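Incident log entry.

Two folding requests arrived from the same account within the same minute. Monitoring flagged them as a possible duplicate submission, but the sequences differ. Recording both here for audit purposes.

Request one:
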Amino acid sequence: MGDIRFNERAWLAWLVKVRVIIISFLVAVELAIAKLTPNNVNLRLFFTLVLVWYTISVFFILLHSVWQEYKLQAIVQIFTDLAFATGVVYVTGGIDTFFNFLYPLVIIVASILLPRYWAYLTAAVSFICFGTLLELSFFERIPSFQISPRGDLKSLQVVILVNFFAYLAVAHLASALSAKLRQAGMELRDKSGELLSLQALHENVIHSIRSGLITTDFEGRITLVNAPGQKLLERTASAVYGRHISDLFVDRLPNLESFTAQCEVRGLTPAGKEKTFDVNVTALIVPEQGTIGYVYTFEDRTELRRLEREVRMRDRLAAVGRLAAGIAHEIRNPLASISGSINVLSQISPFNEEQKTLVDIVTRESSRLNSIISDFLVYSREKSFKFSRMDLLPLLEDALVLLANRSQNNELAIVRGYAVPEAFAAVDADRIKQVFWNLLENAVRAMSGKGAITVSVRAAGDFLRVGIRDTGPGIPPNLTEKIFEPFQSNFEGGTGLGLAIVYQIVQAHGAKIYVQSQLGSGAEFILEILHAKAAEAEPESAPTPTPTPMSAEVSHG
């Protein structure tokens, strides 16, 4: 119904414009006739009639904008036009008029705006008006403006009858064509609706798939990015349209001209975060046009590759653990014998300065080797955890107070940035304190005891995020991925097991730890652990206790 009313309104607006054009045309034609042909037209009456018709047309324009009954408006306008057409025909000579075509025009308009029976009704009214006008003039009931000699009644009736059949024929043909036009319009609207629905379906499919999708032209300029693609790239569609696709990725993209239509590439987000994507490319083919561009589909493999690295790391850590358990006792016994023998020798035999130096070196290195073996035993020994609901802030404060009291260094600053008043999580308090201590000790060593350590705690969805940032030289990119592996220490005197033990404890808590670093800007170790409320709501995701207490405090990088 809304579409029909809209069409009637549009056709009425068209009728108002056409009416003004026709009236202006009538004035021009009549002026030409008055000058070029003999006639008996009363120009003053003609122009008065035209002026009134103009006025009525302006009224219809105003009425069109305020009156919503468009069908009734159409009826009023059509019969008003019939009245004025009859007046023009009468003033311009009746049977001698050149404007007899006005009646068919009104009939055609009626067939367009109204149902078919209104077209026939308009034709009948036109016949009545025209016939009445001619007969009244013939019988001199009204003044006549014709200049031709008056014929007989029979000729008059023939003229009237011919016009009657002509009006009926126009009504029939015009209404038939209008019906076809309406049907074609409805079919067009239906097809347009189907096309829009199909287009919307295709867009929904494109934007609903989980993979990112990018289309480009032959030159590689981006023409479309679906919603998942925008999310994966962390960019809006407007920010990438028209750009070359290679601007979004670091590595070379696959192409159809080679055998590598699929490969993994790295990409950078606007924030500078590096991601790994699995990218496929295919030709964009349109029927009857052929290939018009390329389609790139991609998926984020960053987390998968991180998990693969973690699995490889766990395998290496497990192998190291087994190795440590096997060799620790084999080394410790001879080491104890060597250390004890040196102590006995130093007590029973006087040494010169050079010999004392050598004895000190042997004693010191034996002690360091014993520390490494002790850390190995702590790392490889089976552990048991006692989880309870604890506030991480007091545990973190204990480690910070211990660090401040131990260092007694005015060149070391500790900055606290707690964004939450409390941070409850299901943890083993002693183990988490060991994690905090090892990370803090690692930060102090990285800065050589001078600089600022920033400790932050904030909420991130269902997780708590604890960050420990230093102002040291940063970690080289080639060491970032294996920083939690054993024997990765770059500190003098470190065993390289401190962060490996941190990683082991964090994994036992079902948490995650990672490092963010830029050379020259320090490094930040970030621990993400499930909030206690979220852990209670999802008990299946709570950490599974893993055997092994670990009372030793290891902080050797």
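Request two (distinct sequence, not a duplicate):
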Amino acid sequence: MGARNPAQATESLVETNMKNFAQNDFARNFALASLFLSLIVPNPALAAPPVSRSLALVGGTVITATGEPPLTDATVLIENGRIKSVGSRASLAIPSGSEVVDVRGKFITPGLIDTNVHLVLMTVPEFFVKYEGHFEEIAIESAQIGLKYGFTTMMDTWGPLEPLLKARDRLNRGEVIGSRVLIGGNIVGIGGPFSPYMLEGAPLHGLDFRYGGWVQPALQKRINDLWEANMGPRLLALTPSELADAMRQYLAKGVDFVKVAVSAHGIQPVEPLMFSVKQLRAMREEVKKAGRPFLTHTFTLESLRLAVEIDSDLLQHPNVMDPEPETPGQIAARDALITQIKAKNIYCALMLIPSKEQFKILQNWKAEEHPDDPYINQIMLNRRAGATPEIYQKRVAALRPWLDAKVPFTLATDAGIEVSELGPVVWGRLGRYEFERMEALQDAGASTIEILMAATRRGAEAYGLGHDLGTVEAGKIADLLVLDADPLQDIHNFRKINMVLKDGHVIDRKSLPTVHAVDFYDPEAPWPF
């Protein structure tokens, strides 16, 4: 990158990314179209400012995430933001003038990747009232918090498209530092935050998810329009050809991927199906022509069947179903779908991973021990009834078929921001929830190497970025973590970050965030505080 001008560097990255994406079965038929489009609209996800420096990480244990055993007493040579070579310390000569960092006794992994976050979202209406007009800055602050805690790449799967794209582009131009972010905008087909798909359907007196119908209608409409970006519920009435036209227009706005609602969100008692198979195929066709990943949102067994039938690239929360499969026929249908998913090698962003530690805290919670935290007390006491040992075991049992089948799962959290002045919500706090999710997977029986692969290599592959990200190999972008302890021994060790590198630069973690649009709750505070 450093030897070429930025436009050439960006174009080359896009070309290699699209070639890699085309190698997968789901994109082969559209590789040429993807390449043509990439020459017109460079992929912003990999556009990083060129650097010209050499760095050597010397003496550490490298966990490559390729499936190969860890390489001890190794050297990682970095040049112009990419990994030049990886090998034993004895076998690699360090170029003259390189900056040398001694990492003996430490562990080098790829930078972490979260395949489902929300950089600009809270589950209370006051957030949208107070911070309308500040979403771009909030997104950047969120990206900085993610990077501080080792997440060098994050995919925002539902949010306000225009400010998110502006934030992404500022990050990619190097105007501000932060995680590499990919933006999908709206979940195609659903309404915005104040629609029945979200806060309009929330409980009137909800503690952590609150009704928003009281907000002034004009403000509700502005926020909904910003989120929907002309890809909301009106699409349900379009013909397949009209949907294809709408999707082409949406792709032209510069989204990095598309996520389509196969089932609804927030509609009770059971989420209805949204689109017909013909409608889904029409949208999928346009997305694949553009060389972008096609994601699906499902909450029922039948919606998952449709998502598998149309060969989605990444299934978001496919294991989350309400109601859960209970009858022998439903369980058999679920297991058959899992078998198909494995056979088709469809990536799965698994969620609803029960946390053994959080279940224990809920069960032992005593309000009198927290007299200064009345709102957290309300939330915790309200949730305690659903946190019995029996429910924990039931959730683990529902997760095990996916893990046992070895579906290619990614780390996905739904993590978002928690603004301190709006009070606690105790959902998934960005910068903390990712570690909690990995630890919960370990407690549920997933191996540490499977979790590491989910949080690195598979996240990159699921979004067509495997040629450039996700492993520690020559030629890859130098997004790396240096840890003080071995994550393969205990996944909790991912919290022991010594150093974060993005694009070959060592990040000053203590300085982050540099953008202070809102005051976040501390990601390092113990859950639920």
